[in-house]
């Protein structure tokens, strides 16, 4: 049992973000079983995910606004593929060494998120200070099951050498 969180725990949390944007504290305790939990550790992990979400949503808003400026008029024109600039920015942030295979479901969730931002901005909802809350409610329902391998304290070695 470790008293604190290590850089490997941060890397694991970033990879978990591809599956879950809104993990509960109980879920975090399950997936970080090698850590001796206390209030400080729990809040640090929750803060990490909050920071991950903040970066994610900033990128989504930025790319939605860029698409609008580029003349995109319909959500059907917006897609996220492994070779698009938005995917590269997200992958670089959460999977810097690019040694983890990002799940297809994350691409779907990212595309839904981008389209939600696009639609809200097009509709002028961004004039309301709390306009993003409606988007957050949609995205929080799209979390996936985190694979069992993440429960292992040695999961990074297993994941990154597959």
Structural class: mainly alpha
* Gap between N and C termini: 26 Å
Largest sheet: none
Low-confidence spans: none
Number of strands: 0
Task: Please provide a written account of the structure.
The protein has 162 residues and is mainly α. It is 56% helix and 0% strand. It has helices spanning 7-16, 25-31, 39-69, 85-94, 104-122, 133-139, 155-160. α3 (39-69) runs antiparallel to α4. The two termini are 26 Å apart.
Keywords:
162 residues, mainly alpha, 7 helices, globular
Topology:
Layout: H1 7-16, H2 25-31, H3 39-69, H4 85-94, H5 104-122, H6 133-139, H7 155-160
Helix pairs in contact: 3-4, 3-5
Gist of the model:
The chain is mostly helical. It has helices spanning 7-16, 25-31, 39-69, 85-94, 104-122, 133-139, 155-160. The two termini are 26 Å apart.
């Amino acid at each position: 049992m470790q008293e604190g969180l290590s850089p490997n725990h941060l890397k694991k949390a970033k990879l978990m973000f591809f599956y879950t944007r809104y993990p509960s504290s109980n879920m975090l305790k399950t997936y970080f079983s090698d850590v001796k939990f206390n209030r400080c550790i729990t809040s640090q992990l929750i803060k990490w995910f909050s920071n991950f979400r903040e970066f994610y949503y900033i990128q989504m808003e930025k790319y939605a606004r860029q698409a609008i400026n580029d003349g995109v008029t319909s959500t059907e024109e917006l897609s996220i593929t492994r070779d698009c600039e938005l995917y590269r920015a997200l992958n670089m942030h959460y999977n810097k060494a690019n040694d983890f295979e990002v799940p297809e479901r994350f691409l779907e969730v990212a595309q839904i998120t981008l389209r939600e931002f696009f639609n809200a901005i097009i509709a002028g909802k961004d004039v309301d200070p709390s306009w993003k809350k409606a988007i957050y409610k949609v995205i929080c329902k799209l979390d996936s099951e985190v694979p069992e391998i993440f429960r292992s304290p040695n999961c990074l070695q297993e994941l990154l050498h597959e």
